[in-house]
Structures are given as structure tokens and as C-alpha cells.
Amino acid sequence: MTVGASADEALVAAAQRGDATAFDALVRRHTAKMYRVAYRILGDSAEAEDAVQEAWVSAWRSLGRFRGESAPTTWLYRVVTNAALATVRRRKPTVPLEPTADLISDRIAVDPEGHVVRTEDAARVHRAIASLEPSQRIPLVLRELEGLSYEEIAEMLDVPVAALRSRLHRARAVLLARLKEMRDG
């Protein structure tokens, strides 16, 4: 167990005992990560902010039911993923993901031409990801962009690991096909 995980567990335990300061510390520690997940699923900053807010309200309400069978971060990813999915279900078509500088790359190239090429490539990848069905986009975002394990994602999405691997395989295949279409078209 990492130091961050044990600190999160301590904060959750304190929050479950009614310590609002501990819950506030969880909010400060994890809001940026939760926003990043919501944004990558929804592609809209206002909707992502709303989803994160809904996720925190849901987490507060369900805090007493959290039994610690998974890491607090896994639980919070699941809560924000569910909030983002609820937003996706409420809207009609998928909104294209608009890449932002902080999501495209943390490293700005010294070479302006190279930076433009990388920015265009990243924008194309983000558009292709946004075009995926939510059942493919969400596990892809969680695995490839957030770096979660297959087991964590399967637990979050309440699917067997084998089914998750199959979804990810299909998502990667569709993503590659869409990127090829964008490049050739």
C-alpha cells in the first residue's frame, strides 16, 4: 500500500466518523484527477465540472456504505465515471472532445513546427476518442489516459476483466480505424 493510499484510507475513515475536514481534504486531493476523467469522457469543461460536483455529492451521501473493499481512489473514479455516464445518457449526440494545451502535452516543444505537428496529432486522437461509443471510450480513457489497471477498471464498471479486455481490444481497433480514416480522408 502506498503512502497516498493509506492517507486516503485514513481520510475516508475520518470522514465516515463525521469529520468534514477529512472529507474536504479528500476533495482537495482528488478533484483535479476526477475532473480530468470527467472531461475526457464528456469533452466539455462545464459538463465535466458538473459531473465532478455530482460525484462529490454522491460520494458524501454514500460515504457510510464505503466498506474499503477497494482503494478510495478506485471508488472515487467509479463515482465520477458514473456521474459522467449519467450526463452522457442525458444528452443526445456525443460532443467532440476539444483538446486543451494541458491535456495535449505537458511539454511544449522548443521547435514550433514540431509542436504544431504534435498538437494536430493530439487533436486528431482526441477527436477519434470522442467519436467512440461510451462503452468503449470510458474504459479506453481510464486505461490509456489515466493508467488504471484492468482490475480497477473492471471493478469500476462492474464487468469481468475478460469482458473489459474485449471492450478495450474493440475500442483500440475502432480508434485505429478512425485515425486511419482521418489521416487518409
Automatic annotation (TrEMBL):
Name the UniProt record assigns to this protein: RNA polymerase, sigma-24 subunit, RpoE
Keywords noted in UniProt: DNA-binding, Sigma factor, Transcription, Transcription regulation
PANTHER family referenced in this protein's UniProt entry, alphabetically: RNA POLYMERASE ECF-TYPE SIGMA FACTO, RNA POLYMERASE SIGMA FACTOR HI_1459-RELATED
RNA polymerase sigma-70 region domain segment(s): 26-92
Family statement: Belongs to the sigma-70 factor family. ECF subfamily.
Pfam families assigned: Sigma70_r2 (PF04542), Sigma70_r4_2 (PF08281)
InterPro entries (UniProt xref): RNA_pol_sigma-70-like, RNA_pol_sigma-70_dom, RNA_pol_sigma70_r2, RNA_pol_sigma70_r4_t2, RNA_pol_sigma_r2, RNA_pol_sigma_r3/r4-like, WH-like_DNA-bd_sf
Gene Ontology BP, a term: DNA-templated transcription initiation
Domain RNA polymerase sigma factor 70 region 4 type: 124-173
GO function terms (MF aspect): DNA binding; sigma factor activity
Superkingdom of origin: Bacteria
